[in-house]
Amino acid sequence: MTDPAESPTEPEDRNRPHGDSAPDPNESDPPDGDAPAEPDLVADTDADRHEYDPDADHAFPDARLNEVLDRIASDAEITAYLAAQNVNPVDRKGYNDHGAKHVEIVRDRALRLYELLKEGGVEFNGARQQGLDEADEPVIIALAATLHDVGHVVHRHDHPYYSIPLAADLLDNFLPSVYDVAEQVRVKAEVLHAILCHHTEEQPLTLEAGVVRVADGLDMERGRSRVPYEEGGRGINTVSSQAIERVSLRKGEQTPAQVVIRMNNAAGVYQVDSLLQAKIEGSLLEDQIRTIAINTRSDGDGSGPIVDRVEL
Q1: Cβ distance 194 to 201 under 8 Å?
Q2: What is the β-pairing status of strands 257-263 and 289-298?
Q3: Confidence at 282, pLDDT banded by 50, 70, 90
């Protein structure tokens, strides 16, 4: 089975910067006499695209996660797989990036989403039901995000299923440096569950898995879209895949997390619905995430842009 949300597209923009450190627009003071601006309509500083910072204060125990991230970065076998897994989708199939940059984006956004949910009081069930610690929740998420696409070394098609045995072998080598035997088995089980369930054909049973699934869909900006791109074409797939300019993940007004997607063409809604909403559906996080698409377009008479706002 193939995942319709992950189909051929144009090559990625490998020089696109990832993350910035601008002030959070949610924390800015409104002008005197004005009502506070909705966070989805403020200036597009996109501060919430930042990379995970191990030195920052977090809403969860982070020491174990930081240790694991350091070990991932220095693990030669994992690094080699992240490079090798790009050959089939990119070089042989002409798809977009599924290698180290995609993994970096998915892992950073998964940890950002996890923190927003923790700040919102959401209780996770995967590690807890396995008798593991709260500190193991972000470890499960980070490891699953890192290894979720490793099955591409076998084939693009059905890659989530090939990812399971390959990730299992990598985890058998990796986890003994962090956990005892009983914990290794339980962490491994939860990581593999999350890897499998990033595929929309499978049903997540844990919120940790749901976070990884949604984060995979957040890598959808122009040049990185996950829906079909027709070289030289002008069909809905092509226009939609080029319409998404920025994706922001931030604290919501009505839900713990809010995804704000800025588009230059209303056709981008097709991509959002085909990719992100398909990932959110069945993720166990439907009630915790609000998605807003903002289309900034010319008004046609040269007097300025018109902003259309669509809640999905």
Answers
A1: no
A2: parallel
A3: very high
